Amino acid sequence: MDSNAFTLIMAPLQGLTDVTFRTVYARHFSGVDEALAPFISTMGHQRLKPARIKDVDPRYNQALPVTPQILGNAAEDFIFLARHLADMGHGQVNWNLGCPHSKIAKKMRGSGLLMFPQTIDALLEKIIPNIPVPLSVKIRLGRQYKQEIHELIKVLNRHRLDHIILHPRTGTQMYRGLADHDAFEAAMHASAHPFVYNGDITDITSFLTVKNRFSCINRFMIGRGLLANPFLPEEIKGISPDPDQRLTRLKNFHDDLVTAYAGQFSGPGHLTGRMKGFWHYLGISFKNHSKPLKKIFRSQSFTAYSDNVARFFDADPRFCP
Hints:
The chain folds into two domains: 7-237, TIM Barrel (Alpha-Beta Barrel); 243-314. It is of the alpha/beta class. The protein has helices at 19-28, 50-55, 75-87, 102-105, 117-127, 148-156, 181-190, 204-213, 224-228, 232-237, 246-262, 268-282, 290-297, 302-314; strands at 7-10, 34-36, 40-41, 66-67, 69-71, 93-97, 135-142, 164-170, 195-198, 219-222. The chain is globular and about 55 Å long. α8 (204-213) links the parallel β9 (195-198) and β10 (219-222). A ten-stranded parallel β-sheet has the order 3-5-6-7-8-9-10-1-2-4. The relative contact order is 0.11.
């Protein structure tokens, strides 16, 4: 497979794919070309949250090029944040119109805005002429119904966008059911903008299914599939990882990630909680993982967590995503 013919993008997963994860991941695995950062929420009165801005600071993102993502529904606040990100050196920003979580949607943010295409239209009318960098959007088929995409595409066609990232599910679906390729194709053909495919790329077969069906697309975003199988981008790009080295590489990656997070979290409880979050994805890729994983998740201290993880790897588990 010609690895130069397409681009693989690390998807934004809030609380997981931050700059620490992105940097450590790039030290241990290849195949990912760039990343979309987890969203930064706009704040009123032209305020910034330093920790979230630091996550996309180009000085700390040398390992993997990153595009910042903004979550918001107020034009003035969006413009302020986008200008700040441009001043930091970013050449593009992305508007999150796809976050499916109800707490976000109820505030008319993320996928909660998809039911209101005229509001999106008015916001784009104000935002695009007043930011110094191109804008892309990340969307779903709709908040409640996939038919919402039709009016949304008509609105987006009226504006100058760099590209559209579409996850072909509704917001209320979250990640249930199958990604709707028919709806994706219809939206893509109705759009005046280039599309990026996002959703359910979990192995080579699912990637090829998407790539072969949408032959005009050359940018693909991978999120949960990458967390479950960190080797997936290498496999897709034809960079064959040595199967005998997989377990060692995974352990080294885990240990490096622990060290990196230990230097930034305030206490072992926070560190343990963050690492357990990754095992929810990675753990399912091991055969007979149920009992060993329960011990990891039940760890009440970082010492217990470390001991349980060490025993897990020492047992030579079979990694079979």
